[in-house]
Inverse folding.
């Protein structure tokens, strides 16, 4: 019982506190590759603290939605952090609140809340961003949910922890067809959801107009909470990609070895950052309508191989 | 070493190349995609030749490589107009086509497969009939490519894709005698030659008043 | 080797040899080759090759005779029809070369003793005939050529699946071995035969994969259309027949034939161009023959053979006379051709007799074929199909003859006969079915 509480606390605190760190590591690596010095890896933390101290302005016509949704979305992401295997490979206290599919739907829920709040601000640019996001999400969410269902085809249950253990103990299950193509599809969705090149470029030169535009009207404390939610979302999606699809090995479940999970996760994340960075620095952002092509391909992969694996058994 | 998964993976890659061709707007990329597809089929043939120690499949793989991979690609590439990489096909709405494609394929292939093919037992290595799903998918994907596009080149590539599906079916199910396979290849080659004569004159196909009804 | 095998091989080689004269006088060489082939095919009735490489029985003989006769008539007709002035898509020698290759591929498909090679032969016919359609280059003929290639190839490719399934079930592709092995009722063989119906049926003109038919027939030059209707479609029907014999699924074939006849008659009704009209009439006749074969009744099969051979000559005559009309009036529409009876007597006579022939009027041979087929339909209890077919045959009859009489009778225009060779050939072609009909009556009276 004590181990359980300890594991829960470790996972919760680790996810929330370390999410900005990975974003910072990523920004610094990318800068190094581009022959710049780049910001310090703790820069996101400095940004968040700075924003917390600044004045919060809200647009005139906005309602409670605008002012409280950032906290609600943050809360949703924290809940998701307890449901999926992002640090500890065994279920902890709140894991049974929702299964894997429920996790996917919670992601959609948080995205919907943020979109509603951004629309509520009444700004033109935010409205444009929301319309883009909504039209791309219809394929993106479809692919996300399908991929999460595909996970269940490997083991027969929707529980990602079981999938993780199954993949660790049967290495040959890793090259089954549905697994390989579900991984590919999920990787493509990961790039889309976290706003990486070739889909959205945000940062130095421009403000990405798909995901980032949701933050356009926020300032001060609300902006800090929003940014933090984005970092947590990035961490969660990446960890699912690593632990359930790409690289399920290396996690410990017994006490007190689960504390070793922290460096293991950091190591795995470094690998993921490396891969994403190669993609980011070699490709250019595609034109807006091609994002729909990209998502259609991801969707096709996930559905086709879902059906194929059903028929083949 | 579990060869089943490798066979499945190669078949899946062939399918992926078919979808790649479906999503292209540039004709050169389509021709290259078809080259990749033919090479992958030859690889599958070689793999099965090794697994079943059959020289027939080996010769078949070589024939595929030469006649389909090299010759057809060469023919198609030389017929394109001089500024090759810019030959572009207008008005292709890729995501919509993908979705319609999925529906079409699901209905056609899975129904046909479950009624007919699931009781076939192929001779080749993964002894269950699920490998036959891929050639069928490839065939219908070629058919869909022909019906969804208007450019002559695309339709030629779609036809070659259909024939590739048939060759794959023969490889997986039971290899037809070499004489027949060779004649089939030569036939397809001749057809591609003839089609390319036409593409010089007519590059797109619209509805025509006189040919209605 | 036996004399029979020698004849079969010669049948294939002779047009090939004629093609060597490409740079000299290939036109006359082609005619000579066709005449020689005709004589050989008549000889084949008495001297048949044994079943080894070739598989020739009485039915095959009829088809081969059909092929060589129309080949001869078309090559003679082409001498006048295809001139340098209007052969813009192909050069004249190329036209004759392709015509020879076309004939060889069809003779090959009809005689060979192997299903896979039959398939190859059918594909080869597509290859050699495709370019013939665009002899007179225009936007429409290019489009028709392309549709022909794509639709027929897609269909025939589908038929290859059935060949693979046949090989899988029997372990061999030799026609004689499979047919003498007796009936096997496994699922695969049924599926193979059904797939072959759609696959090879694309070339025969089965609904719904017949869509290339009217386009190709209307845009191709007349001798080529005659060869399509009179030779290509029957050859494809022959191959389908051989596959059908493995496992006869009578009801499926009869239903598809009936639906196709309905479609053909309906489409025929509102055609405004006479060549397309004749194309749909071909489709109707082919499907009637398909029904006759599908009944697996000796009366039905004999009726189908009578129908096919009379129809080949009649349809060839119809297309030849249409070609003459096209040459002198320059229009393809029915409405623009009026009253050619006065100035073009021979062509009008040929046209009238051909159209009566293809719509199944007594005493032409097609009528007797149709009667036999309809009778055999009743014998196998295909009564609803019988009723439907009769109704729509009447529709088609009215449709064709109404249009043709509009063209022939009425106030005379001032066209003139385009030379003497073309009308003569069309007249010969249209009289032959009369002879066949007369032959039939004599034979029956002698028996009865």
């Amino acid at each position: 019982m004590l181990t359980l509480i300890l594991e829960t606390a470790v996972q919760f605190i680790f996810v929330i506190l370390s999410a900005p760190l990975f974003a910072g590591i990523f920004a610094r690596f990318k800068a190094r590759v581009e022959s710049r010095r780049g910001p310090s890896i703790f820069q996101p933390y400095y940004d968040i603290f700075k924003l917390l101290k600044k004045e919060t302005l809200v647009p005139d016509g906005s309602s409670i939605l605008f002012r409280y949704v950032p906290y609600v979305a943050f809360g949703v992401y924290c809940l998701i952090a307890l449901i999926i295997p992002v640090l500890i490979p065994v279920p902890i206290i709140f894991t049974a609140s929702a299964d894997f599919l429920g996790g996917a739907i919670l992601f959609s829920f948080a995205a919907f809340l943020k979109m509603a709040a951004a629309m509520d601000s009444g700004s033109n640019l935010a409205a444009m961003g929301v319309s883009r996001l909504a039209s791309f999400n219809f394929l993106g969410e479809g692919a996300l949910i399908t991929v999460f269902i595909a996970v269940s085809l490997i083991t027969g249950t929707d529980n990602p922890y079981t999938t993780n253990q199954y993949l660790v103990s049967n290495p040959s299950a890793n090259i089954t067809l549905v697994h390989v193509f579900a991984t590919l599809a999920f990787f493509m969705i990961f790039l889309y959801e976290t706003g990486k090149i070739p889909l959205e470029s945000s940062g130095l030169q421009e403000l990405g107009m798909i995901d980032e535009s949701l933050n356009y009207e926020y300032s001060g404390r609300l902006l800090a909470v929003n940014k933090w939610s984005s970092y947590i979302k990035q961490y969660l999606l990446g960890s699912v990609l690593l632990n359930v699809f790409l690289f399920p090995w290396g996690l410990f479940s017994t006490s007190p070895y689960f504390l070793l999970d922290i460096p293991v996760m950091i190591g795995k994340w470094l690998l993921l950052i490396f891969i994403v960075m190669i993609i980011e620095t070699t490709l250019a952002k595609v034109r807006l309508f091609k994002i729909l092509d990209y998502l259609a391909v991801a969707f096709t992969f996930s559905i086709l191989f879902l059906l194929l694996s059903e028929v083949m058994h | 070493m579990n060869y089943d998964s490798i066979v499945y993976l190669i078949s899946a890659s062939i399918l992926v190349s078919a979808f790649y061709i479906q999503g292209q707007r540039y004709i050169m990329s389509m021709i290259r995609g078809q080259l990749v597809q033919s090479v992958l089929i030859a690889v599958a043939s070689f793999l099965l030749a090794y697994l079943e120690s059959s020289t027939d499949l080996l010769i078949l793989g070589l024939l595929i490589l030469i006649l389909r991979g090299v010759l057809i690609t060469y023919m198609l590439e030389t017929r394109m107009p001089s500024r090759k990489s810019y030959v572009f096909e207008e008005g292709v709405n890729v995501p919509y086509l993908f979705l319609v494609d999925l529906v079409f394929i699901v209905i056609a292939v899975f129904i046909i497969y479950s009624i007919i093919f699931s009781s076939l037992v192929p001779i080749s290595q993964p002894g269950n009939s699920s490998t036959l799903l891929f050639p069928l998918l490839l065939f219908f994907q070629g058919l869909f490519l022909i019906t969804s596009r208007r450019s002559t080149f695309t339709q030629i590539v779609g036809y070659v894709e259909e024939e590739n599906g048939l060759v794959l079916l023969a490889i997986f199910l039971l290899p037809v005698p070499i004489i027949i396979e060779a004649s089939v290849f030569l036939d397809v080659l001749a057809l591609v030659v003839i089609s390319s004569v036409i593409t010089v004159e007519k590059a797109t196909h619209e509805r025509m008043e006189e040919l209605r009804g | 080797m036996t004399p029979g095998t020698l004849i079969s091989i010669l049948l294939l080689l002779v047009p090939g040899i004629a093609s060597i004269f490409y740079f000299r006088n290939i036109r006359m060489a082609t005619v000579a080759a066709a005449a020689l082939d005709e004589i050989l095919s008549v000889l084949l009735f008495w001297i048949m090759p044994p079943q080894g490489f070739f598989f020739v029985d009485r039915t095959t003989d009829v088809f081969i005779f059909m092929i060589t006769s129309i080949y001869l008539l078309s090559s003679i007709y082409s001498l006048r029809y295809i001139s340098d002035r209007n052969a813009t898509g192909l050069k004249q020698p190329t036209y004759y070369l392709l015509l020879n290759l076309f004939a060889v591929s069809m003779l090959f498909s009809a005689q060979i003793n192997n299903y896979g090679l039959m398939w190859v032969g059918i594909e080869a016919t597509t290859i050699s005939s495709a370019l013939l359609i665009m002899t007179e280059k225009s936007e429409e003929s290019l489009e028709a050529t392309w549709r022909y290639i794509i639709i027929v190839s897609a269909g025939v490719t589908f038929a290859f699946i059935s060949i693979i399934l046949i090989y899988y079930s029997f372990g061999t592709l030799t026609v004689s071995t499979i047919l003498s092995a007796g009936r096997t009722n496994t699922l695969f063989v049924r599926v193979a035969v059904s797939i072959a119906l759609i696959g090879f049926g694309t070339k025969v003109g089965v609904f719904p994969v017949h869509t290339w038919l009217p386009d190709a027939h209307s845009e191709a030059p007349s001798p080529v259309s005659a060869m399509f209707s009179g030779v290509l479609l029957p050859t494809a029907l022959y191959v389908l027949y051989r596959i059908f014999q493995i496992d006869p699924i009578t009801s499926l074939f009869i239903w598809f034939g009936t639906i196709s006849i309905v479609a053909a008659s309906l489409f025929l009704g509102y055609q405004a161009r006479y060549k397309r009209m004749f194309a749909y009439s071909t489709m109707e006749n082919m499907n009637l023959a398909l029904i006759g074969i599908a009944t697996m009744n000796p009366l039905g099969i004999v009726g189908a053979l009578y129908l096919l051979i009379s129809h080949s000559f009649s349809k060839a005559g119809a297309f030849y006379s249409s070609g003459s009309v096209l040459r002198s009036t320059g229009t393809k529409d029915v409405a623009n051709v009026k009253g050619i009876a006065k100035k073009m007597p021979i062509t009008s006579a040929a046209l009238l007799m051909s159209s009566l022939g293809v719509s199944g009027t007594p005493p032409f041979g097609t009528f007797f074929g149709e009667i036999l087929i309809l009778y055999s339909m009743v014998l196998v209890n295909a009564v609803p199909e019988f009723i439907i077919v009769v109704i729509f045959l009447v529709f088609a009859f009215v449709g064709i003859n109404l249009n043709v009489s509009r063209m022939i009778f009425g106030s005379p225009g001032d066209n003139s006969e385009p030379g003497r060779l073309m009308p003569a050939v069309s007249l010969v072609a249209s009289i032959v079915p009369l002879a066949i009909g007369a032959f039939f009556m004599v034979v029956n009276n002698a028996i009865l």
